[in-house]
Design goal:
single chain; three-stranded antiparallel sheet; 5 strands; binds zinc ion
C-alpha cells in the first residue's frame, strides 16, 4: 500500500534538488515519457526556456516536461485505496 507521507516527501525532495548551486528538476518528457533531470537555470543564470530529452532528443519548453513528482501527486487516483 502506498505511503502518502513518503510519497509527499518525494515531491519535497524533487523541489529541492541541487548540483552545487545549480537547481535541477526531475521531469517527464512530453514526447516519450522518460524521466530526466533538467537544469532550472541556464549557465548564464536565466531560467531555462528549453529542455532537451536525453532519451529521444525531444526539445521543448518547460511546459512540455511536467514534474515527475508534482506537489499533491500522492492524492491522485492511482494511490487511493480500493477496498
Ligand atoms: Zn523523450
Amino acid at each position: 500500500m502506498a505511503n502518502k507521507e513518503l510519497l509527499r516527501e518525494q515531491s519535497n525532495i524533487a523541489y529541492n534538488l541541487f548540483v552545487g548551486d545549480d537547481r535541477v528538476l526531475l521531469v517527464d518528457c512530453g514526447n516519450c515519457g522518460a524521466t530526466s533531470f533538467q537544469h532550472y537555470c541556464t549557465p548564464e543564470g536565466d531560467i531555462s526556456e528549453n529542455y532537451v530529452c536525453p532519451f529521444c532528443g525531444f526539445e521543448g519548453d518547460p511546459s512540455d516536461f511536467p514534474d515527475h513528482f508534482y506537489e499533491g501527486f500522492e492524492e491522485s487516483g492511482e494511490f487511493q485505496d480500493n477496498d
